[in-house]
Each structure stands twice: as structure tokens, then as C-alpha cells.
Prior knowledge:
Layout: E1 11-15, H1 19-31, E2 35-39, H2 45-51, E3 56-60, H3 68-79, E4 85-89, E5 102-105, H4 110-149, H5 152-167, E6 172-179, E7 184-187, H6 196-200, E8 203-205, H7 208-213, H8 216-219, E9 222-224, H9 235-241, E10 246-253, E11 256-264, H10 273-340, H11 346-377, E12 386-389, H12 390-397, E13 405-410, E14 417-420, H13 422-438, E15 444-453, E16 457-463, H14 471-474, H15 487-491, H16 498-508, E17 512-518, E18 522-530, H17 533-554
Bound molecules: adenosine-5'-diphosphate.
Amino acid sequence: MILGRPAPPGHIAILHSDVEKANALARTFRGAGHRVTVIEKGRRVTQSVIEHPPDLLLASLSFSDPPLGGVIRGVRLALGMELPVLVVADVEDTGSLLEADDIIREPFDSGELDLRVATLLRAQAEKRTLQRKVQELLGLYKVSWAFSLAGGAEGLYGHLARQSAEILRAEKGLVLIFEPERRQMVAQTPGFGFEPAQVERLRYPVDGEARSRWNFRKNGPLVSNKAQADTRLLPRVGADLGLESVVIAPLVRGPQALGLILVANRPAAPFGEEDLNLLLAVAGQATVAVENLRLHEEIKRANIQLEEHDRVKSEFVAIVAHDFRKPLMAIRGFAELVLEEPDIPVEARQDFMRTVINETEHLALLANDTLLITRIETGEFEFRWREVDLGPFILDAVPLGLSDHSVLMDVPPGFPKIVADPDRLRQVLTNLTMNAVKYSPQGGSITVRCRERGSHHVVMEVVDHGLGIPLDQIGKLFQKFQRVRTEEHLRISGTGLGLYICRLIVEGHGGQIWVESELGNGSTFGFVLPLDASKAQAQRKALEAERAVKAIRDTSA
Length: 557
Ligand code: ADP
């Protein structure tokens, strides 16, 4: 007896002209752990082999119904693969068969037969493994190819879902991406093998119950062949998606989980270690693509923002240039007059020079406003916090000597001291009072009213009885360059920057500004400040820093 390595168990089909010999062989093979099918001669021989493809065909050379050569060619053609054939020849058989891989002549001992069968079955098993590997590699190659071609999120996630499912020969595939704000994995459309509605509404939380069942970042991937009865998964998700068996691999970048790839349902065979390794390989490649896509979308968003900033800046420059030109022309006109007309009476000359000074001041103000806006917007501006005794400060800050208008000060005694930037606070009070005067062209009273609100805030209001503001335009007033577009308002010159600056200053103090108004009946502009703006700002900065840290932490599901 010849000893060899034991044969891997396989499926052997026997075609023998002698039925008894066929059955004897079948018994021996079954005893060695193989599955055996004895094929009866006749019309259906080729069909029978094809219906249950064997790993090895054992045939007697004398098998002639139908002729053996034709059967082998037919089977190989139908199955599209190499089928090893071991031919058994009688001593008297003198012929040979081109299609055979090996031939064994009777009489042979069972050890020799075992050895030949084992060799052929092993070669066949190795060939099958190789073929599968080639298929998998081809699949992986297709995945990376798809990543580079994919256009946008839908393309990438769709390809990834389909390719992952195809590589694992499964029915369904899906990509979920981590959303840090809501701390959940969001299914990406399109999935593969899912109804669009199933995918659109699917969210998988990463905290709470889901986390206590399975933490994909810490515990890694998951294979389950009873998905709906698996305690590691949320049962309703398994039911909603109709999952039977699943392999889930996280898309990991360093300590963070960017998302998950889920492949599900393969009725032909349960998922195993090899499938998991394959999906992990796909996930490894996909992570780079998913991260690139995320960065790409971020850059796109930032670009849109930059373009918008650029547009607003250009608009700003155009308007400011226009606003500068007007007073400059006036200054130039009066200066020329004074220069070219030596006989102008002294009073007129003084008048002209006063106009020149006023216009120069106007220009300086405009330049300051422009600069201040830019510095606050870019975060370069530092408020200078001081203690401010509000009562006397307000009385001093509000310009009182305004023609045709009486300004009433309503400041309760013992109004508190606060911490604020006095120069900027003065700017807010002046802007609001000057506006109240400007936009009450018929004169009338203006009230500056101050109150404490609770024990941590103060409220200041400037009330006028002037033009008022139409309801549909009130919402935008605190934005840059917003001016009320009625004939009466536009007759009064202005830039639309004052209220925007007031908002930047008040918000820089940790406060809020608002307006209540009725067209034709006057307006009330009010703002609230915390008693200590420096603390409020420090708290805000700490909160912002905390948020930034949390955002980084949150990207780790
Ligand atoms: P400016 O007065 O230089 O145009 P502001 O930013 O101070 O710019 O004000 C923006 C717009 O809000 C003004 O153009 C005006 O139309 C409207 N507005 C401001 N204050 C009042 C007010 N008290 N009554 C009516 N309208 C006002």
C-alpha cells in the first residue's frame, strides 16, 4: 500500500460501465469521507454531472453510453471550469483518453487509488482557492478603480456598497457615515440591494443602547449569521433592513471611526473569517477615499464661503469708495472757491471752511468705521475692558445739544457699575441717538431709557417718534449696508454701517441688540449687556474652545 497525504474531502462522480464495480468504489470513497454520486449510463449522463458538479470525475475507460470523451467535453464546457478526470482502465484496455488528467490501470490497490484521488482533489481545491483569490483581487482592484473615478458622495458610496457586496458574493451592501453633531451613523444613498426608503431613513446611534451592545470603534468589526437575533446589533435595525447575515467593518482613521461598511445576506453560505478579512481590506482602501471626499466637500464649502466673503468685500470697497468720494468732492469744491475767489466775504469764507472741516471729520469717521468693522470681523480687535459707572457715563455719552429735538434721559439713581469697553459703548449710544435724531426729521422727543434686568444684566433703549421702519425691512437692519428703502429714509444720507457696528460691539460684549418699530410712528432700539462683559467674553472663548475640542472628540464615534 502506498501512503500519501490524506485527500481533502470532496465530491466524486463515478461513471463506470460495470455497476457493481462502481458501487464498490463508491463504498470505499464514502468510507474515506467523500461525497459520491454514481451516474447511471444513458442519455442524461452529461446533465446529471452538470446538475451536481463534482470535484473529481472517476470514469472507466470502457464507459461508452454515451462515449466518455464527449461527456467530459460537454461537462467542462457547461461548467466553465477545469474538471479533473481520473480514468480507470482494464488490463485489456489498450486505448487512452486525451481528456483524462490521470489514468490508473487495474489491478490497483486501494492505497494507490487513494493517492491519485487525493492528488487530484488537492490540486482542484488549490485551484479553486486561487480562482477565488483572483476574483477577490479583481474585486478589490475594481473598488480602488471606482474610488478614483467616483464623482461625489453618491458615486463613491454607491460603488462602495455594490463592490463590497459583490466581493463577498452577498445580496446587500451599505455605507454608513458618522455624523459628529448628532453622534450617529447615517446610511448613505444609494445602498445596494436595499429599497431607497429603507436607506434614507436609517440612522444607527453610536451612544446609549447601541454602544452598550457593540462599540465598533473599540470592539472592531462584526460577523453575524443570525443578524436579527444577535444581541450585538439593535434588533429594529436588523428587522428594518431585512438582515439575515451580516459582516460589518468600521472605516477607521487613527482613533476615529469615520463610518461603517455593511454587507448582508448570502443564502448560499454563512459569512466567515475570510469574508471579514476581505471586507476589512475594502474598508482599508475606502477609508482614504471617504476621508478625501470629506475634505473635498469641506474645501468646497470653504470655497463658497470665501467667494461670498470676496463678493461682500468688493461690494464694501465699492460703497466705501463712493462714500469717500462725495465729501472729498465737497472739500475740493470749497477749497477751490476760497483759493480762486479772493473777494469772498469773511463770513462766507468761514462758512466754507467749516464745511471743509465737517466733511473731513465725516471722512475720518467713515475711515474709522471701515477699519473697525474689518478688525472685529477678522478677530483682530481687542476690547479694552474698564469699570464704567453707567449713570454718569450715559449722561456724558449721549449727545444732548441736538437742534429741534429734546433728549430725555431716564436713568434710575444708583444705576450699576459695569465692566465694558467705554469707547465702544459710547460709540453704540452715539450711533443710536444720532440715528434717532437723523430719522426724526420733523423733530420731536428722544428718550434714552436705562434699566437693570435681573441681577446680571442692564438694558438701554433709545426711543424716537420719527419715520419708523416698514415691517418687511426690519429683519435685515443689523446687517452691513442695510438701509431702509423708502423715499423719505433714502433722502437722509447714510452708509448702512452704523447699526452693523453697534451689533458687532454689543455682541462682542456678550449682549444682544434689537429694534421694535412701526412705520410712521417711531422706533425703539435696545440692547442688553451683561454686568461684566470681560467675564462673559472669557466664558464664551472657553465655551468655543470646549466646543472645538468636543468636535474633534466627536469625530471619534
Ligand atoms: P446709516 O444711518 O448710516 O444709513 P445705520 O446702520 O445706522 O446706517 O442704519 C441703517 C438704516 O436703518 C438706516 O439707513 C435707516 O434706514 C434705518 N434706521 C436706523 N435708525 C433708524 C431710526 N431710528 N428710525 C428709522 N430708521 C432708522
